[in-house]
Design a protein that fits this description.
The structure is a homodimer of 385-residue chains.
Chain A (H helix, E strand, L loop, with lengths): L3 E8 L10 H16 L6 E5 L3 H5 L4 H9 L6 E5 L4 H15 L4 E8 L8 H7 L14 H16 L3 H15 L13 H5 L3 E3 L2 E2 L9 E9 H6 L6 E10 L14 H14 L8 E3 L5 H10 L8 H7 L15 H5 L3 H17 L12 E8 L4 E9 L1
Parallel strand pairs in A: 2-3, 2-4, 9-10
Antiparallel strand pairs in A: 1-7, 1-8, 4-7, 5-6, 8-11, 10-11
Chain lengths: 385, 385
């Protein structure tokens, strides 16, 4: 396959964007990415979006968005893999460039979650779980992750305070991100004492409902070099694995098997291991998810993820910074946009453009985007040349 | 890009499948395709589905389906482009094989439309139109295509009887297809006198609401040759173009611009023209759509599509058979499955396995799948070696 570079990134301020429609939000982020890339020719477009049908009554999404973006007749493809839709869009954009069918691809992610009709966001999000075994019987994602948290606590002794440390750290990082939805100072006490959602998870363990979009411009490495782009951020490894989307069929509730498999593929392709990664954006839809992800990705031994968060290793100044952007917890989680925004953050860090939250000379970052409770995982490894 | 062959096809009997769930229907068709291919190793899977969220409350679809199919951890991608979701899944499967990321790809299409909650199928389907300009204001697809039909009749003198000829022909073909939903003998009178849906389109001008799935196994041509597969059906050309999904912004209501652009790409890649195509499966969601598609694909001059249908050219024994399967009209239109089933039909014809509706030694067939009122079009050209 041809090598692939990222030559542009863009996102907007995330939050409750009542005054902007889905198409407005997407176009804003996409134009920023195009502008950032310095080019205006796009061969094709991929859009990650979980459920614009249930949220705003709009399918046929990619054609609509390329039209509003002014790129009318180009081939456009909307992909869906629940909360991993953005990461999947990145993968499909990479495959398109790798095949030679396209040379320059715009990949966007979008979700408009606040204008939802009917049962509201929680019902719409529950369609990422198994409808027959889970959603129909009334469990929602906070409940699913609460089961996983309790299993992790029982098996490994993970504590309530360790969960809180993840939330505090990500909110600290989000304070430094101008695009983050919830810029607030959290404390161990404020997380633990927030409204209980599903024991042991409080409101401050849960990622929010968010309107937002993010976009990147991908390009063959050869073309990017010809354009004289520097510093160049390139894809070094990718992995994609799936699992049962219903939790009850998993052998072990305390680990994300699809993440481990996707990471193994990505490490193998990149010729590196978890110790060679300088920092990562991981899928912290709930605090326990970040702990389990950092273990499943191989950054820490099983059962050590909570301790790592507590010790400060994963903080901005730590040895293995996780979610420098603020993560889903603080930055927000407009479902289909999340996996794309992770790439925006990693590219910004690698190019030295991450502002107040800039790491010192990172060379290699990883993005990890997950669907549902681990029914799908996508891992990408990026390096700056 | 690497060359791509089709080594297996499968579909089930389409209709109102009350006793089968979405996952049952998909697995049935997919296992048939895998069985037909003679192989059991799949590297990745693509699923075309428009709106399982609105129809049955299930997103995260591709992971769910690969799990139920027993292909658990493989990468799976659900794509959506309204009624062109199946054709888009075919394209993305081709690109995956072409890139070398996968060697053998299962492409499936599925829609379960009869168990729908709330506003019913028409409301769910309306999300393929522009929510802000069209659906919100109350127009549905029969109304949109009725506007197109009236414009075509006014501009070119296309007649009510010519529309009926399309329906009669496709029902005649469907009578020979064991998998077709509506196996009935239609007449010019029975079409014209059926219940009026949106003037001039009666119920017998409209494709039905259908539960069904279809699947194909794609493979690199080299691997297919090594397996000794014969006769081999290979992809020769592909095209994908988009347009505004809202009808009012189009310059001309009587032609499908995205189809013309996609066809031009496909012809160019294949090094052939419309006259070199022996037969085609086209997107006849309404009778007028087939007439406009056959013109936009270049089989007939603009305004001549209705006359061609009337003259018998597009019938099974005609010079340019269109929709030998019965088309969407008779076979049914489970939205995401349609574009995949078109490939099943063309491959069956090219391999001489089309039973009672078999054409005499066709060498080259075309598939045309369209989203909404032409907001997206996908064209593929297939040849038997």
């Amino acid at each position: 396959m041809r090598e692939v570079a990222v030559i542009g990134t863009g996102m907007n301020k995330w939050g409750e964007l009542w005054e902007k429609s889905l198409r407005d939000i997407f176009v804003e982020a996409a134009l920023k990415a195009i502008d950032n890339s310095g080019i205006d020719k796009i061969d094709s477009m991929y859009v990650g979006c979980m459920t614009s049908g249930l949220f705003v009554g709009q399918e046929h999404l990619a054609s609509l968005l390329s039209d509003y973006l002014g790129y009318g007749p180009i081939p456009t493809c909307r992909v869906e893999s629940a909360c991993a839709s953005g990461g999947l869009a990145i993968r499909q954009g990479i495959i398109d460039v790798a095949s030679g069918v396209s040379d320059i691809v715009l990949v966007g992610g979008i979700e408009k979650m606040n204008d939802v009709d009917g049962g509201g966001a929680t019902d719409a999000l529950a369609t990422a779980s198994d409808q027959e075994w889970e959603a129909f019987n009334g469990i929602t994602f906070p409940g699913i992750y609460a089961l996983m948290a309790r299993a992790h606590m029982e098996k490994y002794g993970t504590t309530r305070d360790q969960l809180s440390h993840v939330s505090v750290k990500n909110h600290n990082n989000g304070l430094l991100n101008p695009n983050a939805q919830f810029k607030l100072k959290a404390t161990l006490e404020s997380v633990k004492n927030a409204v209980m959602v599903a024991t042991p998870l409080t409101l401050m363990d849960c990622s929010p409902v968010t309107d937002g979009a993010a976009a990147v411009v991908l390009c063959s490495l050869d073309t990017a070099k010809k354009m004289g782009k520097t510093p160049l951020v390139v894809l070094k490894g990718m992995g994609h694995a799936t699992n049962s989307i219903a939790l009850h069929t998993r052998k072990d509730l305390t680990t994300i098997e699809s993440t481990t498999m996707a990471a193994q593929q990505a490490y193998k392709m990149a010729g590196v291991g978890p110790k060679d990664i300088n920092f990562a954006e991981v899928h912290d839809c709930f605090t326990i998810a970040e702990i389990m992800a950092t273990e499943s990705l191989g950054f820490f031994e099983r059962g050590e993820g909570g301790k790592a968060a507590e010790s400060g290793i994963t903080a901005l100044g730590g040895k293995m910074p996780i979610n420098t952007s603020g993560g889903l917890k603080s930055k927000g989680h407009p479902v289909g946009a999340t996996g794309v925004a992770q790439v925006c953050e990693v590219v910004s860090q690698l190019k030295g453009c991450a502002g107040d939250r800039q790491l010192k000379n990172p060379r290699r970052g990883l993005t990890h985007n997950m669907g549902g409770s681990g029914g799908s995982s996508l891992v990408h490894i990026w390096e700056v040349l």
